[in-house]
Every structure is written in structure tokens, then in C-alpha cells.
Design goal:
The complex is a heterotrimer. By secondary structure, chain A is an all-alpha fold. Chain A has helices at residues 3-6, 11-47, 67-98, 101-113, 119-146, 161-185, 189-197, 202-213, 215-231, 234-239, 257-264, 270-303, and strands spanning 57-58, 63-64. Chain A is globular, with a radius of gyration of 24 Å. Chain B folds into 2 domains: 13-67; 70-302, MetI-like fold. The chains are: A mainly alpha, B mainly alpha, C alpha/beta.
């Protein structure tokens, strides 16, 4: 009998090793947040809290207003979700109920593959291919059709808020569609049949029974997509134009907190660096909260089974 | 005695029925049109969802393929103006950094997965939650976190720091996949082994983990695909390097980083190299994704 | 008995629990649905074959037989529930009054408003209140008139013996009801569109005995208002509630066939086919 076969570990040590891994895990996350917070403290102590909503970002003159970046983050996320919610739910409905069985898997896979494309490739494609197209075709069209809303002021540059929002939309779409499709397909067949049996058209069944029946899960999908959009860095940084000014037009250059960090961190020192950590902390906390909320929604759908009404 | 059944329901009901059927008939056209439009719109949206993927693939292939020549794979990155540039250093850097990240993440992730697979209590729930939360952390924050606790302390950028950052991305993914795979192993297997007197560690090593192997491999491949494509975590850790660097304690160039820097430069030949790198990177990720599905199907089937 | 005085005052005012013994159906009861050589196949494999029978107005017709004999498949063919199943094909003719149910020009949505269905397990819509559930069929059909909606809802809930329990909590969710109550809610939902026929697919199999009894009583009460076709695997239930029975049996090719069809009393006491006799005597499940 070789010595190797006798190698074993007592149960207690084994369990301790497992627990250690778990503890390290938790420690990592805690260290994460703590490290950010520690680095952010100098900014708060020397500037108070007002820099979080300050409108001027001018590090050379000591102005560290983060508002335009917070707003930029919200704006790009909003554009992405504004597009992703209808298109995502429509796609998910189509995948779950409106395509022939044979095509369901290949089409679902195709949408899911969108998630496999690295962020930086989306950035490259967005910057080099889509931006010129936006500048020459999309933006002039939108300006002429919707310029009256005041959202399309400024020159047609291609890059800017709108492009960032659109690229972000493409990036969150696969997540949204995958979760939504599962949740919509999980609505119990008996609900669908019940609606059919009482005289509903196909669309009425989908819109009045299936979608409402899946609404908690859809909310979860939406929330998780928001979380992804908030944290997206490289693709946005490449196409947003990087301007520290508050963006009031969809065509203007803007910046988000992640894009700010990317562009400014390398040379930042002292207070500026601390401010960047404060911004990162805000992003981190919001991102974690949104992620947590989204998973809670999705998990509560899975826990309630197929959301069937209990029979006494 | 034969009974003549009365006409069905008395008048109020009959009147209602008439009204209802009239409403149903008159609204039918409108409802069918709405139905057709609704369903049509959903299908169009599906089309819209699929188009960008083809858009990206078409461009990456058409612009990236011309960049693939011998120099591309054998020469290191060269500044604008100098001919015969390639991404050899980036390829090597990516291999080394991702390799180290995998070497760190897989054991850690599998062990954590083992822990989670066996714990249904509150501690397990908390750890699971933290793993989920970590998957959603903005990647740039990972970068500056590693910068603060490692790069700054050590004094220089390094491939190791980059690997550490990438493993922060990979570990939660592997952990969750591992937990799922391990939970999928029927309890009867480990019970049988335990009842024969084997220790838990042995049971894990010789029974449970091998049984969960297809799922584990799938999870690892997907995690690698995810980690290999990340750029932000590398920005302030591995940083980048014009030259070939195989020492992980020094700054290293990686493929995502090359794409990132070159895409912002106004030089067409560097841009072409960026496309070529993007093509290579996407090919690797595609192979990993397809590989994970193949493994899941093949090995999963063999074990039935 | 069908008391003309009671009937003329409108069903709404009729005493809710008027137990009626199954009446010997008269031969001149008009035919409300006619099946002519109806077969249902899935991917070419027959599940039901060559069924011809007439459903008469005001009666409860029961489809009985052992499991697998195609009762539910046949029932679902009556309101075109197989339409969504791509592998399903229905041949033969189904006539609802003068309408050919499966004609190209016939819209299934309209058929389903005239032929309602109650399922095996109660399936109220979980996101809708009790009221919204009951009027859902009306709303789907485009009825907007508030008065008509409320009148139909009340009438249907009374008919389903649920009005007194829920009239004060119409906005509550369906999940607050017990299983038996939920099934009656589903019956009310089906009744609210005033269908001509109500199909019931083993409506009591998921319920406890007390709830079952209430539903059975309801079925007997409702047949004046709506013709009922009920699938049941419980022979005693068929004897209790139905006027006519159709006995189906799986043939050698696994397709269900109609073996015998006739008045319940006769079918159970003196069936013509020996297989019916066997089933009725409990010789096979």
C-alpha cells in the first residue's frame, strides 16, 4: 500500500479549511469596502460632503464637484434601461412564447453570446464603427425629428452620452433577456390556459396574465441590469467623450464615475485621489445595494416555486 | 312524462349573454389587430437583440483578420511609425496573468464551493450572498482596491497584482458554479462512502469532486472566459508594458489593455493591431464558451 | 323540477340550494353541441378516435372511463385548446349550434367565450383581485360597460355559491380563498361571460371531500343555466351529477374510442356493451 493512498485529513481539519475559505471570502469583501472607505476619508474630512453634489470639476483649482459624473452615470444608465426594458422584455416574450421550439435554443444562445463579448471590444467597435455612423446618420436624423424636445442640442460628434447609452444598452441586454425569459417561461401553464379558456387573444394572454404573473422576477432582471450598467467602465469610457461638464444634451460629451476614475486616477494625488476613492465608494455601495435588491427579487420568485396559488 | 326543458337562463341572463357576445364580436377585429401588432413587435425586438452581435462579429473579423500576420504573433508592441509591430508581449502577458489567476482562483473557488454546498445555515447564506455581491462589483473599483493594498505597498505595478485583480473577478464565479455542481452530486454517493468509514476529506476528494467534475470544468472555463476579457482590473495593477516581460513581479502587457490603448490613438496601423487583438481575444473566449458547453454535454452524458 | 314560476323570476332570485334529482332527459332536448367522427392526433399518433355524440342543452354530460382513455383530450378539443399544441391535429366536425368550431373562418377566441372551461386544479390569476378574476373574461372580450361587468360578476358569483363569502372583499386577492372557494371562483369566472356550454375537467380531483360535495351540488344547480360536459374518473360522481354518460376506453392502438353513450341510469344499470359493464362494476380502474 503506497503512502499516497493513506494521505487523508481528519474531519475537523477539513472542516476548518473549508470554513477558512469562507472566512477569507467574507474578509475580502469587507476589506474591499473598508479600503475604499479609508482612502475616501481624507476627502470628506477636508472637503466635507458638499463635493458630492458640487458642479465644478477642476482639480487644478481645487474644485472637486462630482455632480456631473453622478448625473452622467445616471443618464447613461437611464438611456440604456429605457431601451433595454421594452426591447428586452419583448425579446424575452418572443423567446419564451413566440418562436418555434426548434429555434428557441439557438436564438437564446445568440442573445446570450452578446454577454461574452469583452467590454473593451464593445468600446473599440463603438468608438471606431458606430460613432462615425452616429455622427453622419443617427444624430442628424434624431435632431431633426426630436430636436424640439431640447435634448439634441449641440454638434453631431458621434461620441457622447447617447452613444454611451446605446452601447450600454447592448451590454445589459443579454442579462435582462436571459433572466426575463426564464421568469416568463416559468409562469405556470395553467394560468396561460386559464386565460385562453376565458376568451383572451394571444397577446392578451401574454400581456395581461403572463407578464404580470412574472412581474417580481422581471423587476429582479431590471434591477440586476441596472447594477451592471452602473458599474460598466471601459466601453463607456471609450465612447462617452470624457467631459467633466454636466451633460444637458444627448449629443454632448459627458463622463461617468467609472470613466472619471479611469481617466483621472493615474495622475491623481492627495485630495484628488481621495475624492476619486470617495466616488468609487459611492459607486460601490450603490452597486452592491442594487445587486442585492435584484437578487432578492429573483430569488423570491424561485422560492415561491412557480408562483402557483396554494390549494387548501 | 317528457319534460320540455325551458329555454336556458331567464331574461336578465339572456340579455347579458347577447350583450357580451355582441361586444366580443364587435371588438374581435380590434383585438386581433392589437394581438398581431404586439406579437409582431416582440419578434422585431428579438431581431434587434440579435443584430448587434452580428455587427460586432462582422467588423471584428473583417478588420481584424488582415492584421493577422507572422509579425502580429511574434513581434512585441512597437510605437507608431516603427514597422513590424505585433502583440507577442500582450499574448504572453495575458497567458501568464490569466494562468496565475486561474491557479489561485480554482482551488479557492472549489473549496469555497465545497463549503457552501454543505452549509444551508445562516453562515452559508451570508457567504453565498457575499459571493453574489462580489460578482456585481464595478470592475474599476477592483482595480483601485488592488492598487491601494498591493501596488502601492509593493512600490510597482506587476503582473501578480493584475492576476490578483483578475482572480477577484473569477473566484465568485467559480464558487457559485462549484456549489451548483457539487450540490448536483446525489447525496447517496457521499453517504455510501462515509458509511464505509472514509473521512470527509477523502470523500470529497475521491467521490464528490470527481462526480461534479463536468460542472466544475464548465464553471472554470466560463470564469476564465470572463476574466480573460476584463480590462478595468488591469489598468492600475498590471499597467502595461511595451516590451516583453515574463517576470510577473514587473508590469506586463495584456491583450485587453492593448486594445484599450490602441483604440484611442489616431494611428491606423495601431488601430488595425487593436482589431486583430480583438479578434484573437474573442476567438479565445468563443472557444472557452463552446468548450464549456461541450464539456457539460459530453462528460455529463458519459457519467449517466 | 324546473319550476316555471321560479324560472320566470330570473335565476338570480332563485334559492341557491335547490337540489334536483337527475331528471330523465327528454328526447326532444335540443342539441347544443354535436361531435361528428372527431379524432385527435399528436404527431400522427391518435389519442382519440372517431367520437360521435350529441350534447343536449340543459343536461350534464359526463365523459367517463379509465385513465388514458382520452377523456380530457376530447374535452379540450371542444374549445380548441389544442390550437397551441403544434403537434396536435383535430379532425372530424364539432358543431356549436350552427357554428363549425374548427372552420377556418371561425375565431377560437369567440368559441372560447361561448364554451367555457374549468380545470382540474383551481387556477385563478394570482395578480388579480377576486372581482378582477371574475370579470377577466368579460374584459378580454372587450366589455367596458361598468354596469354590465358588475351585474355579470354578481350573477356569476351567486351561481357559483360564492357571493356571500366574497361580496365584502371583492378587492382581496384570490390566494386568500381556500381551495374549494378558488375552484368556485374559477367557475364564476367561466360563468361570467354567459357561455352556452361549460366544460369541466375533473374539477374536484384536487379538492377535499367537503369541497367536492359542494361543487357537485353546484353542477346540478347550474345545468339550467349552462350545458355542462364534465370529465370524471369517479364513477360515483358521474352517477350523482350527470344525466348522460359517454364511456371511453383506450383501444389497442392507444387511441380512445367511444364505447357507449346514453342516459346515466341506463348506462350504469343495463349497459349494452360488456366492456361498459366491466368498468361500471369496477373490474378495471
Amino acid at each position: 500500500m503506497s503512502r499516497r493512498r493513506r494521505f487523508t485529513v481528519p474531519d475537523r481539519a477539513y472542516r476548518r479549511a473549508l470554513a477558512a475559505a469562507a472566512v477569507l471570502f467574507a474578509a475580502l469583501l469587507v476589506a474591499f469596502v473598508v479600503a475604499m472607505a479609508v482612502q475616501a476619508v481624507p476627502a470628506f474630512s477636508s472637503l466635507g460632503f458638499s463635493f458630492l453634489w458640487g458642479t465644478t470639476w477642476d482639480p487644478y483649482h481645487g474644485a472637486y464637484g462630482l455632480l456631473s459624473f453622478i448625473v452622467g452615470t445616471v443618464e447613461t444608465t437611464a438611456i440604456a434601461l429605457f431601451l433595454a426594458v421594452p426591447i428586452g422584455i419583448g425579446t424575452a416574450l418572443a423567446l419564451a412564447y413566440l418562436v418555434p421550439d426548434r429555434m428557441r435554443a439557438p436564438l437564446s444562445t445568440t442573445v446570450e453570446l452578446l454577454a461574452a463579448v469583452p467590454s473593451v471590444v464593445y468600446g473599440l467597435w463603438g468608438l471606431v464603427v458606430v460613432a462615425p455612423y452616429f455622427a453622419t446618420h443617427v444624430e442628424p436624423f434624431l435632431t431633426s425629428a426630436f430636436g424640439w424636445t431640447g435634448l439634441f442640442a449641440g454638434p453631431n460628434q458621434g461620441v457622447g452620452l447617447l452613444l454611451a447609452g446605446v452601447i450600454l444598452f447592448i451590454m445589459v441586454l443579454p442579462t435582462l433577456v436571459a433572466i426575463s425569459r426564464d421568469v416568463l417561461a416559468a409562469v405556470p401553464r395553467e394560468q396561460v390556459e386559464g386565460a385562453m379558456a376565458v376568451g383572451a387573444t394571444r397577446w392578451q394572454v401574454l400581456w395581461r396574465v403572463v407578464v404580470p404573473g412574472a412581474r417580481t422576477g422581471l423587476l429582479g432582471a431590471f434591477t440586476l441590469a441596472t447594477g451592471r450598467a452602473l458599474g460598466e467602465t471601459v466601453a463607456v469610457a471609450l465612447v462617452i467623450g470624457n467631459s467633466p461638464h454636466l451633460a444637458t444634451s444627448l449629443k454632448s460629451n459627458a463622463a461617468t464615475i467609472p470613466s472619471l476614475i479611469v481617466s483621472a486616477f493615474g495622475e491623481a494625488t492627495g485630495t484628488q485621489r481621495s475624492v476619486l476613492f470617495a466616488a468609487a465608494l459611492v459607486l460601490l455601495v450603490v452597486g452592491i445595494a442594487v445587486n442585492f435588491l435584484g437578487r432578492f427579487f429573483v430569488r423570491s420568485v424561485k422560492r415561491s416555486g412557480a408562483a402557483s396559488v396554494a390549494v387548501a | 312524462m317528457s319534460v320540455t326543458l325551458l329555454d336556458p337562463p331567464a331574461d336578465p341572463a339572456r340579455a347579458r349573454r347577447a350583450a357580451i357576445q355582441a361586444a366580443a364580436a364587435s371588438s374581435l377585429r380590434r383585438r386581433k389587430v392589437y394581438s398581431g401588432i404586439g406579437i409582431g413587435v416582440c419578434r422585431v425586438f428579438l431581431l434587434i437583440a440579435v443584430i448587434p452581435l452580428f455587427g460586432v462579429i462582422v467588423y471584428v473579423v473583417s478588420k481584424g483578420l488582415p492584421a493577422w500576420n507572422v509579425d502580429f504573433f511574434t513581434q512585441v508592441t512597437k510605437p507608431e511609425g516603427i514597422p513590424n509591430g505585433g502583440i507577442y508581449n500582450a499574448i504572453v502577458g495575458s497567458l501568464i496573468i490569466d494562468g496565475i489567476a486561474v491557479a489561485v482562483s480554482v482551488p479557492f473557488g472549489v473549496v469555497a464551493g465545497l463549503f457552501l454546498a454543505e452549509s444551508d445555515g445562516r453562515i452559508g447564506g451570508t457567504v453565498r450572498l457575499m459571493a453574489d455581491v462580489l460578482t456585481g462589483v464595478p470592475s474599476i473599483t477592483i482595480s483601485i482596491f488592488v492598487y491601494i493594498i498591493w501596488v502601492e505597498k509593493v512600490g510597482s505595478y506587476s503582473g501578480l497584482a493584475g492576476a490578483f485583480a483578475i482572480s477577484i473577478v473569477m473566484i465568485p464565479v467559480i464558487t457559485r458554479a462549484a456549489e451548483t455542481a457539487l450540490r448536483g452530486v446525489p447525496g447517496t454517493l457521499s453517504e455510501a462512502a462515509l458509511s464505509l468509514g472514509a473521512r470527509k476529506f477523502t470523500v470529497a476528494r475521491r467521490v464528490v469532486v470527481p462526480a461534479a467534475l463536468p460542472g466544475l470544468i464548465t464553471g472554470v472555463l466560463l470564469a476564465v472566459a470572463r476574466g480573460a476579457g476584463e480590462t478595468a482590473p488591469l489598468l492600475f495593477t498590471a499597467f502595461g508594458n511595451q516590451f516583453l516581460q515574463t517576470n510577473p513581479t514587473k508590469p506586463m502587457e495584456t491583450m485587453p489593455h492593448t486594445i484599450y490603448t490602441y483604440s484611442q490613438l489616431p494611428y491606423p496601423d495601431l488601430l488595425q493591431i487593436a482589431w486583430g487583438t480583438a479578434l484573437l481575444l474573442m476567438l479565445v473566449i468563443l472557444v472557452l464558451n463552446v468548450g464549456s458547453r461541450v464539456v457539460a454535454a459530453r462528460l455529463g452524458r458519459e457519467r449517466r | 323540477m324546473n319550476d316555471p314560476i321560479v324560472a320566470s323570476t330570473g335565476y338570480r332570485d332563485a334559492p341557491p340550494t335547490m337540489q334536483e334529482a337527475p331528471v330523465e332527459p327528454g328526447v326532444d332536448a335540443p342539441i347544443v353541441m354535436r361531435l361528428d367522427d372527431v379524432s385527435v392526433t399528436f404527431d400522427g399518433r391518435p389519442a382519440v378516435r372517431g367520437v360521435s355524440l350529441d350534447i343536449r342543452r340543459g343536461e350534464v354530460t359526463a365523459l367517463i372511463g379509465p385513465s388514458g382513455s382520452g377523456k380530457t383530450t376530447l374535452l379540450r378539443a371542444l374549445n380548441r385548446m389544442h390550437d397551441t399544441e403544434r403537434s396536435a391535429e383535430v379532425t372530424g366536425r364539432v358543431l356549436l349550434g350552427d357554428t363549425d368550431v374548427y372552420a377556418r373562418s371561425t375565431d377560437p377566441t369567440l368559441i372560447r367565450a361561448r364554451v367555457g372551461m374549468v380545470f382540474q386544479r383551481p387556477n385563478p390569476f394570482p395578480t388579480m383581485s377576486i372581482y378582477e378574476n371574475v370579470v377577466s373574461g368579460l374584459r378580454f372580450s372587450g366589455v367596458r360597460n361598468r354596469g354590465l361587468l358588475q351585474e355579470s360578476a354578481e350573477s356569476a358569483l351567486i351561481a357559483a355559491a360564492l357571493w356571500d363569502s366574497v361580496k365584502d372583499r371583492m378587492k382581496a386577492h384570490a390566494s386568500t380563498l381556500s381551495g374549494g372557494e378558488q375552484q368556485r371562483l374559477c367557475i364564476a369566472r367561466a360563468l361570467a361571460v354567459e357561455p352556452e356550454v361549460l366544460l369541466m375537467d375533473e374539477p374536484t380531483s384536487a379538492l377535499d371531500p367537503i369541497a367536492t360535495k359542494r361543487i357537485e351540488e353546484l353542477v346540478v344547480e347550474l345545468k339550467d343555466r349552462v350545458t355542462i360536459v364534465i370529465v370524471t374518473h369517479n364513477m360515483q360522481q358521474a352517477m350523482r351529477v350527470s344525466d348522460r354518460c359517454a364511456f371511453l376506453l383506450m383501444g389497442e392502438d392507444k387511441a380512445g374510442e367511444l364505447i357507449e353513450y346514453g342516459p346515466t341510469a341506463t348506462l350504469f344499470s343495463e349497459p349494452t356493451d360488456p366492456r361498459t359493464l366491466d368498468y361500471v362494476n369496477g373490474r378495471f380502474g
